[in-house]
User: What shape does this take?
Amino acid sequence: MNYFQILFSFSGRINRKTYWLCIIPLALVATSLNLALIAIMTGDPFSVKFWGMESVNIGIWGPITIGSYILFAWPSLAIAKKRLNDRDRSFWVYIPYFIATFALNFSDLSGIELYSAPGLIASALYMIYAIWLFVEMGVLRGTSGHNRHGADTLPPMLPNTQKMGLWSWLFGLHGRINRASWWGGFGVFIGGITVLALIFVGTFAFLTQSYGVQMEDPNWRRTPEGLRFDATIKNTLAALSIAFLPVLWTSIATGVKRLHDQNMTGWLILIVVLPILGLAGVVLAKSYWLGYKPYIGITLTAWWGIAALWCFVQLGVLKGKAGNNRYGPDPLKTAAADQGVMSASSPY
Assistant: This one.
């Protein structure tokens, strides 16, 4: 399949690698074009007149947003359609997300406050659906073999005696991994968090050095310069939050495969994930949550602490079940078989 077919055709299948190699450059081109248009209209590509998305400035951000969606809608939908074809999913599962993402840009016009009960419920539902689509389209392998949309875009599954590939190790939900592989994935997770934290700290330090003590003046925060500072911080946090999703997924995926090695269902990983999501929600919403009680945060923190201890022991300390189980071959025997093949083929 050539690039024209990938970007504009709605038939056929594409695998995960092709999906990411197309969707990321497309997003970068769209972002660059938007920044150029914002600079032309406001003189500042990071102007709060655009990024604030306020109804009083809709004459600036409205046309750019609508124009960008119209310009990039076809290739975005074409790529999504072929990826869902590879998963043998209906294309219609993507349409609500596409419409909701567009509508969120105009949420200020609805009169619904983001941190009101309806706003929080809508945001939560949107995030759950977005995460599901992220996993479905960007993480999971397409259906093995031929399906109603065409031939498999990948070669047959690797034999059980061969090592798991890098992508399957970090992002796949199938198979088993041993303790060493889980610790390696945990290292990737910690490394990813560290990089994202350094980016935020570096951005904040640069802005602090640029604006100095003015940041502490409430009146300055309402000036165009102060509003730009707030918009930059919010946009940085939003971008880093999106970048955090694949980092978080590596931790979930390696945890699931490690549970499989224990012959346990991967759903048990929710014991650790749910309190983290709950704590994140509390931090974001407690200032606007009139019924918030301190014991809610304390309970979630205690739950996460106990779950993290269980996770550490279960995933990082205990040995997996010996021999094959319902999730696949023993990863220790697989590693030993690979080592044996390498030794037999070595001339030394």
